[in-house]
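Q&A log
Question type: sequence-to-structure
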Amino acid sequence: MKKEQILVVILVVFGLAGLFSFVSSHLGNHRAATPDSSETKNVTGTVTASVTPAEIPGTGSGRIDWSDYTPGLARAKNQGKHVFLYFYAQWCTYCTKLKQTTFLDKKVQAYLDGNFISISVDTDQNQTLSQSWQVTGLPTLWFLTPEGDRISSIPGYVDGSQFLKILQYIRTKSYLTMSFQDFVKL
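Response status: OK
Response body:
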């Protein structure tokens, strides 16, 4: 009888811990906007909270100018710029690391905003779009031509200096004539 009681207590503790973790992670995604956060609408019109400075669209202050999917593709075509398509989720550890390091790098921000149309897609909010891009892990980074044709994708975290080299490789269209390894050697 004593072993059964201990087992029940352990199961209750694990259940409460899981519930606490679930509730705190979901409540953290619905906090009110602060000077360092904002609300944006995704492509389906759903409001998404907890936006970091690197995610605030259209600020022109060294931050990445994120677009929604369909308007972003149209802007890229109209402006003749390549597309950087970023798939993420609020719960993704490496997505958070990208936001806190790579996307806050001033050189990366300036290069993206000057040469690319950046599109962010929350995979939890836009599951159909994520499935159509065959996103199986996060973060996933795609690069597209101005016409929306797929060039290449990168799964996982990339630091700022490496990401900047990748952006230069794509913008200069060096992918048409050489491998990335050869480009880096230049």
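Response note: The two ends are 72 Å apart (CA to CA).
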